[in-house]
Amino acid sequence: MTETGSPLGVWRVSLSGRVGGYLLAGGPALGAVITWFSALIHPSAQNFTSAGISSAVALGFGLFAWWVLLRVRLELHEDVIVMVNPWGTQRLPWSRVSAVSLGNWGAEFHTTDGFKYTAYALSDLAGGTRQDVRFAGVRRVVRARLRREQPEPPRGR
């Protein structure tokens, strides 16, 4: 299963979620830069220690924001669905998908064997926009794709 060609659609955390992620990463980074300037202007072991600690904190916040908000996405490709969530990445072939619904944690892809895979990028917690509006676009692509997967019924005479 590889993602070839351009995707049919890509959904990320909403704009407000992404802005929050950038602020979560950028605020401590700005603080670290200011601390380093202060250490360069007034060099002392204590100032350089503070700058190092603030850099470590900024790195931690940046990695957390990237991992939980900024890298999260749902990609619908011609042959596979790719869900990049904070807890891992799932690749689900279209042949296993039977339905899609919207749950509290995002778009839920129901499989033919009874399992459910969730795309956190459409979660209420991941954004401030109306998730049903964003989900309507996902549902349109999924319905069109699932119609192509179903074999045509035999034609009678």
Concise overview:
With 157 residues, the chain is an alpha+beta fold. The protein contains 3 helices and 7 strands. It is elongated, with a radius of gyration of 22 Å.
Describe this structure in words.
The protein is of the alpha+beta class and 157 residues long. The chain folds into 2 domains: 56 residues; 78 residues, Roll (PH-domain like), CATH 2.30.29. The chain has 3 helices and 7 strands; from the N terminus they run E-H-H-E-E-E-E-E-E-H. The strands form 2 sheets. Strands 1-2-3-4 form a 4-stranded antiparallel beta sheet. The radius of gyration is 22 Å and the shape is elongated. The two termini are 39 Å apart. The model has no long low-confidence stretch (mean pLDDT 84).
Produce the secondary structure layout:
Elements (H helix, E strand, L loop, with lengths): L8 E4 L2 H27 L3 H26 L2 E4 L3 E6 L2 E6 L3 E7 L2 E6 L4 E4 L11 H19 L8
Antiparallel strand pairs: 1-2, 2-3, 3-4, 5-6, 6-7
